[in-house]
Every structure is written in C-alpha cells, then in structure tokens.
Amino acid sequence: MASVYLRRTQSTPTDNNLYTFSCWVKRGNLGSVQALLGSFTDSSNRGQLEFTSSNQLNYYENLSGSTSAQVTTTQVFRDTSAWYHIVLNVDLDQATDSDRIKIYVNGTQITSFSTATYPSQGATSVIANCTASNGLLVGGSTSDYSTIYTIDGSMSHIHLIDGTAYDASTFGSTDSTTGEWTINTSPSVTYGTNGFFILKDGNSVTDQSGNSNNFTVSDGTLTNTEDSPSNVFATLNPLVKSGNSLTNGNLTVTQNSGTNYQNSVSTLAVTKGKWYAECKLSTISGLFPGVGIIDVSEKCASDGDDNGYFGTTNNPKGVQLFAGGYYSTGNNNNASLTSNSTNDIIGIALDLDSATKNIKMYRNGTLITGSSVTPPDPDGGYAFGVTLYSTSSGAVAEWNFGNGYFGTTAVASAGTNASGNGIFEYDCPDGYTALSTKGLNL
What we know:
- By secondary structure, the chain is mainly β.
- It contains two helices and 31 strands.
C-alpha cells in the first residue's frame, strides 16, 4: 500500500469495548513506524496497531490524553519474503487483564511483551468507539493528521468484527502436509454494526461483509498485485542493500549516492526449475542498471553493496546484462551486445533443469542474440537481481516477478503464460513460470 491508506466514518458500535481485527500483510521496507489499523478522534483520543521502528508489533490506545493500553511484542517481524497473518482480539470485559488484549501471528498467540499496560475491566476502547469523521484508518494511523504512518508493503483480506472476539483459528488453519499457516478466505463470523471485510479480491475497498461499510482511498491509488497469502511472489530483499532505495513493495530500485556497486537480489532463490522474470529499465545512466542472476553465496548477493557486479572474478557465479550492452558471464568472460534503451523491458529466462543449463535474455519480447549462456552450477541457489553504480546517478529498475506491474503501472497487454502463474508484459517462454511459492510447487 506504500503511502496510501484507507479511511471511513464509523457508526455507533455494537459494542464499545469488544472487537476483532484480522489482516494479512507482506512487509516492504523496515525500520519505520507503519500502522495496520488506526483511529483518530482527536490528539487525546486515538489508537493504533502498528509495526514500530524496531519492527515490533505494538498496540496502543490514548484515552483522554493518557495511555490506557499498550502492548509491545519482544518478538520482531523482519521477514519481507512472506505474508504475516495478524489478529488483534480486544475484549475489555475480561476479568484477567492479559486476556483483554490478545495478539496472534500466523496462528500463534504472542505472550511475551516488552511493554504490557492493560486497560481496566469494562473500559471503553478508543478504536471500537471511534465515530469521528473519517476517524477509522486501515493501513495508517496518525496523532494529528499532519503525519500519517502508512504501511510499506501489501495488505489483504482485512476483517473488523464489531462485538465478538474471535481467535486466529477463525481466519486461518495449519496445513496438515506443510505445517504452514494458511488463509481461510471465507470465515464464518458475525460482523456487527461496524464490521467489514475489504481487500478480499484485488484492491477492492468495497465491503464484502454485507454491511456496506466501504472505505475511501487517501493519498494515491491502490496497486493490485498477484502476490497473495496463498501464492507469495519474489520481491527484492531490503535486507541485502543499503546504498539504493526500494519502493513499490520492494519491486522498484533506485540508485543513490554512496557505495559504488549497489546490488539488490530477490527474496527467493532456486537450484532447479525454469524461471522467468522481467525488469523495466525506467532510467538508464551509463551502463546501468545491470540485471541478471547471482548465486546467493556470492559476496555481492549476501552483503549487497560495494562488492562488484554479477559475473566478475570476485562473483563468478552470476550473469549480468548492463544497459550499455556489456555482458558479464562469469570470471570476467565478457561480451559486448547491443545496448538497451530507456523503458526497455528485459526478460530473463533461467533454465536449471535441462541437461545443458542456460540463461537467456530478451529485450521487449525478442531474444537478444548472444545472450544465451550456461551459468555455473549454483552453491546456494540463483536469485534474480540488479546492480546500480553510484557515479551513474539516478538509474532506476522496476521488476515484475509475475505481479503484473512495473512500479504502479500495470503491464500494457499481458503476454501468454502457459503455466498460469504470473502476469508478464511479454510471452513467458513455454515450460517456464514465475518465481513464487506456487511456481516452486508446480
């Protein structure tokens, strides 16, 4: 949702101290305050469920100018490659204080908190009782509306239940085969007067609960994505970079001043299979961006910055095509190909299944002559990735791992994809698929 957030005006609630909030979230950038749910009546009466700048989960309510409730997890949440299922259960009538606020993550109740201030029994919840104009926020919170603390990443299947406390098992379950926590796309719940169900399919903010409690989008437009709790797509990994900037759900990478070589790699890596991804060279500066594949065991993939580019002597298990037509294929075995132009879309097809493994590069749907090479056998697995260079200021690359977007712009006319997994600008080569959890299981 990036800088976008949702808002609506609530009615008098079914119950002013009893509610459940459930959502799925995939984090983007870390290390800043980012809210999942917020309410604002005025600066003295507000509340939020948020990730802190230390990446902890924090639930906070300020009532009549004083902190009435706050629980902050000791656990941190820094995984940007997967979806978290988060459930907040607030029942202020409970006799035991620790039962009045419960937080579940991926089906497990959290019981360890660095801060635990519980409201008194029978108290009013600021969030449940907020009826101020546009006072309920999803994907954001505020203390005065001058600053909105929005979520960086994606959200899906968002429920608010007014008047009933449900635990996580209502909204998800453990897969008996994989042991993973999986989504229940149609839970059986009683929503109450202010309850709602949004972002069920795509970016719809129309309430699916039957209450018609629809939301308004603020500060931009929502971007749809194929990425979902049931099919997690690769993005670029914010933990393996520092010089460049990642935006749009970690799919757009922008060069900044600082370390010379600025590398970013995908959150998923593979040792077998046939994989396809696309990268749009939105801004070219000199030879950069350079796009390709890199073994995650290489220095530039594990540390990210100032460790050369893919396919150098220092990082031989990699292949990279640079905007200027320079092609590095491992151990400095380089070739000069035709140069790329601004807004060219480079398709990367990686085959790790055939007897002769290979990588092929496409430019705007056409195979680049001389780009087909055999990559070395991987040690840790191949990730897709990009290199920018500090002296070539302003280079920008926008990745589509099958999400169907470059930045915030949908593909112009989706090509064919026999695998049925992912949406690409150009035809996905036969036998190849998107780098996602569904793709890993095809």
